[in-house]
Design goal:
binds heme C, Cyt_c-like_dom, heme, Cytochrome c oxidase cbb3-type subunit 2, 12 helices, mainly alpha, transmembrane helix, 243 residues, transmembrane
Length: 243
């Protein structure tokens, strides 16, 4: 053992080769699972893409740093499955660029938040969490209801997502701003075309109760309400359900 070391240290090239060999073991262990990525990621034919309004909401979620306190990944541990629902599957994050799994839970996991609360609850909670959860220490985000949502750049956001593999069509990209408006304004023609382009399951409603314009709140609530609902894959019979 020490003889080998002694000899290695006297041969510069041998030492370098040995160091590279040893150092690459960790790298290989990290890289090897990616060779089977196609079999690892589940199939989800029903997977739908985020609408432009939801993409805008996701960007606000990132901007406000919600991921610093909330994870979006339910682990396979029993207590997590019982608390939050079926554990997260890889395919559920496949349109998330960047992923928002997070690494810290000051607040609860949000991976299956969609439809848990009403839009009105979210609007009140985000404006001042203490109004609905008395002991909450989540910050208040009062400006979300005040600030008008920027939509003129949404086509660019969709284009960027398509570049990294999200299957947006040309039509969806071209109509991004109109679709954002339509999703929060039911009873308009624009709302009908959102359902056509993104499917009948899309949540089309006024999310924040502000009637005269789109706000950042509309977008963020639309995003929160779709969390865990892009695909049904995790609820299929071969996946574990909380008892
Ligand atoms: C400083 C940490 C912190 C930050 C930042 C934060 N939250 Fe929270 N959040 C909490 C805590 C703690 C709770 C639990 C108490 C409550 O419900 O208010 C919570 C609860 C929630 C809930 C209710 C979840 C459930 O299942 O009951 C939602 C939804 C939520 N937060 C969304 C957000 C969003 C969206 C943002 C960013 C705009 C955000 N949070 C930022 C700490 C945080």
């Amino acid at each position: 053992m020490f003889g080998l070391h002694y000899n290695l240290e006297r041969s510069a090239i041998g030492l370098v080769v040995f160091i590279v060999l040893v150092a690459s073991i960790g790298g290989l262990i990290e890289i090897a699972p990616l060779f089977t990525i196609d079999e690892t990621v589940e199939k989800a034919p029903d997977m739908r893409v985020y609408t432009p309004l939801e993409v805008a909401g996701r960007n606000i979620y990132i901007r406000e740093g919600c991921y610093a306190c909330h994870s979006q990944m339910i682990r396979t541990l029993r207590d997590e499955v019982e608390r939050y629902g079926p554990y997260s599957l890889a395919v559920e994050s496949s349109y998330d660029h960047p992923q928002l799994w997070g690494s810290k839970r000051t607040g609860p996991d949000l991976a299956r938040l969609g439809n848990k609360y009403s839009d009105a609850w979210h609007t009140v909670h985000l404006t001042n969490p203490r109004d609905v959860v008395r002991e909450s220490k989540m910050p208040a985000y009062r400006w979300l209801l005040r600030d008008t949502l920027r939509t003129d750049d949404l086509s660019n956001h969709l284009t960027a997502l398509r570049t990294v593999g999200v299957p947006y069509t040309d039509e969806q990209i071209a109509n991004a701003a109109l679709d954002a408006y339509g999703q929060a304004n039911p009873e308009t023609e624009a709302a009908d075309s959102v359902a056509e382009r993104y499917g009948a399951e899309t949540n089309i409603r006024m999310f924040d109760g502000v009637t005269d314009r789109l706000t950042d709140m509309d977008a963020l609530v639309a995003y929160l309400q779709v969390l865990g609902n892009l695909t049904d894959a995790a609820h299929q019979p071969n996946q574990p359900e909380a008892e």
